[in-house]
Design a protein that fits this description.
Layout lengths: L7 E5 L6 H15 L2 E8 L18 H19 L7 E8 L2 H11 L4 E5 L6 H6 L2 H8 L4 E4 L9 E5 L4 H18 L4 E9 L1 H5 L6 H19 L6 E9 L2 H11 L4 E5 L5 H7 L2 H8 L3 E5 L10
Parallel strand pairs: 1-2, 1-4, 2-3, 4-5, 6-7, 6-9, 7-8, 9-10
Antiparallel strand pairs: 5-10
Helix pairs in contact: 3-5, 6-8, 9-11
């Protein structure tokens, strides 16, 4: 298993109480991995902050006043979550559209992981144009952790759907390395899941359904041995399910009480995107727990 170099985690905050869970989880990952946490809030026009009083026409110093207000809220959030200098690398307010700011700053600070909330829409822009998480995913060239649910701690029960392809192997290896880096002393159990299509299983000419099940299990075991051999603190398991991939992944996550789903994307765009869709994006939208999405090497994550 490759060793993850988890040096910088960029987390986006809306400064709302709901974003406390997102920032706190990112801080726990950073503390466990010995990484630095970069906390970012994108500053929008005053009309887009529902809890700020309407001030009429913008005064010349309106942006400075808004930035002061938001800085106070950001400092209050960091204090509320007890995020200290031992973890915090930077905390900043940046003017701009959230998803553009997040992607740009992630590149500038060379973040190893971007952390965003699954339902972080606070202002008018997000309600009209869709969630920040979806926009970040649409062009991300690095892992994105979409936080959903309770997110009480570092990953302990991880579900990793794979399709046995080399690209899936690269994402699986990279994801397991990130889990190993962030899990801390408690470690984590990673379950590699392969979903066998019911039609392929039952309509085979040369092999019976039982033989197909056995072949799938053997290939999955070979896959995990190749791309992610056991490492200290990480227990790798395998399971095969029969069904439609999206539904099988979501069911496995719920039944296994997963606190994280680790999933790679092949980076399809254009025609391939329309034909094959994005299992990763669908899982992110419907999953009951947090999802760590890893792009194919050299590709952006397709989303939406």
């Amino acid at each position: 298993m490759p060793t993850a170099t988890l040096r910088t985690i960029l987390v986006a905050t809306t400064l709302s109480p709901d974003s406390d869970t997102v920032v706190a989880l990112a801080a726990r990952w950073a503390a466990a991995a010995g990484a630095r946490l970069h906390v970012l809030h994108a500053m929008l026009l005053p009309i887009e902050y529902d809890d700020l009083p309407a001030s009429g026409p913008l005064a010349p110093d309106a942006y400075a006043a808004l930035e002061t207000t938001l800085r106070a809220r950001l400092d209050a959030q960091l204090a509320r979550l007890a995020i200290g200098a031992d973890v915090l690398g930077a905390a900043e307010i940046v003017d701009g559209t959230p998803w553009r700011v997040i992607r740009a700053r992630a590149a500038e600070v060379d973040a190893d992981v971007i952390v965003v909330g699954a339902t972080d829409s606070e202002g008018l822009f997000d309600r009209l144009m869709g969630s920040t998480a979806s926009h970040v995913l649409a062009g991300a060239d690095r892992p994105v952790l979409v936080v959903r649910g309770r997110a009480d701690g570092t990953p302990a029960r991880v579900l990793a759907p794979v399709d046995l392809s080399p690209l899936a192997g690269q994402a699986f290896a990279a994801g397991c390395a990130l889990v190993a880096a962030s899990a801390g002393p408690a470690g984590a159990a990673v379950t590699a899941l392969f979903v066998l299509d019911e039609r392929q299983r039952s309509l085979g000419i040369q092999f019976s359904p039982e033989q197909m099940d056995r072949f799938a299990a053997e290939e999955l075991e070979r896959f995990t041995r190749t791309y992610a051999p056991e490492a200290p603190g990480i227990a790798i398991r395998q399971t095969v399910r029969v069904g439609e991939p999206r539904e099988a992944i979501l069911a496995a996550a719920e039944e296994g009480a997963a606190d994280l789903v680790l999933i790679g994307t092949h980076g399809y765009t254009g025609w391939d995107r329309r034909v094959f869709g994005s299992v990763a994006a669908d899982v992110m939208l419907r999953c009951p727990c947090s999802v760590l999405i890893l792009p194919a090497a050299g590709a952006a994550i397709p989303a939406g």
